[in-house]
Amino acid sequence: MKRFKYKAKNAKGELISGEVEASTIEHAAKLVRNQDLVVITLTPKRELPLNISKSFANRVTSGDVTSVTRQLATMINAGLPVTEALLILRSQSKGSMQKIVGQILSDVEEGESLSSAMSKHPQAFSKTFIALIKSGEIGGVMDEVLVRLADDLEKQQEFRGKVKGALIYPVIIVFGMIAVAFVMIVFVIPRLVTIYDQFEVDLPITTKILIAISNFMVRFWPLVILGSGGLVYGFKLYKDTVNGKKKVDEILFKLPLIGSLQKQIILTDLTRTLSLMVGSGVSIIEALTISAQVVSNNIIAEALTDITKMVEKGFPLAFAFSRHPEAFPFILSQMVAVGEETGKMDEVLSKISHVFEVESDQKLKAMTAAIEPLILIVLGLGVALMVVSIILPIYQLTSNFGT
């Protein structure tokens, strides 16, 4: 996709300028005309290095997708044709989402299916989303699929909001501590060192250590920045490799509190998504394949890939899940077995997803309850270190003046 700058006139004769994203200049012109504008000029836009402008322009939040899905579900469920619903949706959307909806509308008007048009915008619509829309088109139940999809996205957003809300306090405290330590080491301690040297104050070992760290940071700050950046970049490169991602995921899963919570959150999303896809008519093979492609953890992704192969060979789904205890708890294979016996797999997966969500919520509360006193202990140690390292030498100095 390329970006094009345009100048056009509206029905009132007013000059309008803006940008559109399209595959060709002809497609871009059509997108502008779809906004009831008469094109005057249309030229390709020169992008900034590394496509920075494009990355910002294409940014779409999960809230945007959830809102668009809910509105589209409401209109389709009310009996509006897809093109008319998209036309209304384009007028109500803003920013990058408005451009995306406009492009989808243009593609649908040219004869493409909704799922095909949406698949051109992976920054907004996931593979799971596209598969569900496609199943709704094939089964003629687009309204039902969109309603279920909107409900699911809202649940996901609510759940992730809980996780972010619980973690925001500890994160703010930690960054605050780092900022205070940086200011003390880089700005405060160098000024105190001059005073200490001038009056030959006998310094405790903790103060000497802080002074050594401060001197190193002040003198070699370019090396510190380059070294830190290099470590972060090197870690990212390693994490992007197959073995690196697997190793990092293994370590994360083994971390106390955080590991089990992360696994529980992934399983909550996974089972909810599988329930939604199976209930919307997506085959279990396709649902497992898509889930393996989109899941964020490499251990679970590999397990899902193997499970898919086993199911393709004719093994029961419950048995396939039970072969991977490193990724899935025993209760999941038990519940899946019930779903296979009763023929209500989507309902069973929905229930187990609810169980995982409740457990995730409990573990999240337990983790925050454990982190808060830990933060207080670290703060206390930090204050004690500052008292011993900075306040005591100053007190000693003032005592010498008194004598």
UniProtKB/TrEMBL annotation:
Alphabetical list of InterPro entries matching this protein: GspF/PilC, T2SS_GspF_dom, T2SS_GspF_sf
Source organism superkingdom: Bacteria
Keywords assigned: Cell inner membrane, Cell membrane, Membrane, Transmembrane, Transmembrane helix
Spans traversing the lipid bilayer: 166-189, 209-235, 374-395
Gene3D superfamilies listed in its UniProt record: Type II secretion system (T2SS), domain F
Family: Belongs to the GSP F family.
Name this polypeptide is given: Type II secretion system protein GspF domain-containing protein
Species per Swiss-Prot/TrEMBL record: Candidatus Woesebacteria bacterium RIFCSPHIGHO2_01_FULL_38_9
Lineage, opening ranks: Bacteria, Candidatus Woeseibacteriota
